Amino acid sequence: MTTSQRESLGVGLLGVGVVGSAVARALLEGRTQQTVPGSHPLVLKQAVVRNLESERPVPRDLLSDDVASVVDNPDVDIVVELMGGEEPASSSIRAALKSGKHVITANKEAIAKNGDELIALAEANGVRLLYEAAVGGGIPIIGPLSSDLLANKIQSLRAIINGTTNYILTRMTAQGEAFDDVLADAQALGYAEADPTADVDGWDAMYKIAILARLAYGASVPLDSIHREGIRPVTASDIRNAATLGYTIKLIAVARLEEGGLLVRVHPALIPNSVPMAKVDGVLNVCEIEGDLVGPLWLQGRGAGPEATASAVLGDIIRVARAPKTINPPRKLSSPPALLEMSDYECQYYLRLVAKDQPGVLAEVAGILASRSISIDSVLQMDSNPEAGTADIVLTTHPAREREVQQAVEQISAVSSIEKFASLLRIEPYGDTPA
Ligand code: HSE
Q: Is 163 in the pocket of ligand 1 (CB under 6 A)?
């Protein structure tokens, strides 16, 4: 059958913001027919916006402010959800799937929170639910985990998947600036949202690693099983101390098979300067995948931005346009790995204490660590403040169990010569890579 004989498929857009506009333009220009001539022609049938008066690259007669005009529209075969946020997006996706429409979405929150249910609903209704744009913007990561890498046992996923925090940490590292100053500037430049919580407190990265972990390990990964910390507590002096020790601080999202199961965690970490991840700067994202057959993979690119995200959305649309009847449910294992708790995690730690600069303080701290079998790897005294009579003590440990370290921190915080327990950061293990 030639292209011209193939039935066209109707597309309905929910949301015409910056990504939606890039997708709409591509559809209206016929880009998908030009790049993949054998596929079903795609016709934009309707686009739903919040405000009908705003300027959009979509003919006025195709615009509506009613979600039902897409979700209940018999001429729409593919619903492209780009509204973001859990609701009303999840309900719209649910309704579209139930009425037999394929759904393509960039919505990490909806897929992280309701993915198990929505994936099952798509399967039950014989339609596709695709979400390449939900993680890593333009980086193809859902596709490889959903198909090309299925023969592998995935040992680990380790990623920088939040551009905003990577931008902030990169500036703090390069220029020694404080978190609040860089955040304010990033907001003024449009790199950070007015309400930065989702990014800086690690929610966005948590949604994304939950989605990747579900695909990689064939397991349901409830959000409350994921350890989440953001970058607000990271100070310019932590970044400086890390540099002195040969590390760069990054917000990382990791899903890795450890002894006894799968641990999923999001937190700032010290990355050895000798590994490539330490050099992934600015708004770039990267995902390292380790599969038993394929070995290590490295996918780096633009994790956000209208064109890069539209690339992922359009790729999914083309998947449907080429083979609308092909349904490939994601891998779901009958006995997935157990989900581990952070308290069982073992790694090297970076600890910073603000202590009275007087004899015996270090000995007391060392005694507490020794009593819990936590072995010290290095000690630095930094940032002496003669006026206050304090100094920062920076310790790194040999591998230790999180539970033990947290208990030691509590004990150290109670010592009278310790003014403040300032930072606990983890050093990311990299096999035999020297720090
Ligand atoms: N807010 C995200 C980030 C981009 O900073 O990476 C969209 O997922």
A: yes
Q: Tens of pLDDT along 377-419?
A: 999 998 888 899 999 999 999 999 999 999 999 999 999 999 9
Ligand 1 binding pocket includes 109 (Cβ within 6 Å): no
Relative to beta strand 63-64, strand 42-48 is parallel
CA dihedral sign of residues 165, 170, 173, 175 = negative
Look up the CATH superfamily of 142-302: Dihydrodipicolinate Reductase; domain 2 (3.30.360.10)
Task: Give the residue, by CA position, lying nearest to ligand 1 atom 8.
Answer: 304
**How far is ligand 1, taken at its centre, from the CA of residue 335, in Å?**
33
The reported pLDDT for the residue numbered 276 is 97
The reply to whether CATH 3.40.50.2000 applies to domain 3-137+309-322 is: no
Q: Is the CB of 166 under 6 A from ligand 1?
A: no
CATH 3.40.50.720 intervals, the chain = 3-137+309-322
Residue 110 backbone phi and psi in degrees, to 5: -65, -40
| Atom nearest to 167 CA in ligand 1 | 5
Q: Taking the model in full, what pTM does it have?
A: 0.96
Task: Answer yes or no: are the C-beta atoms of 130 and 104 closer than 8 Å.
Answer: yes
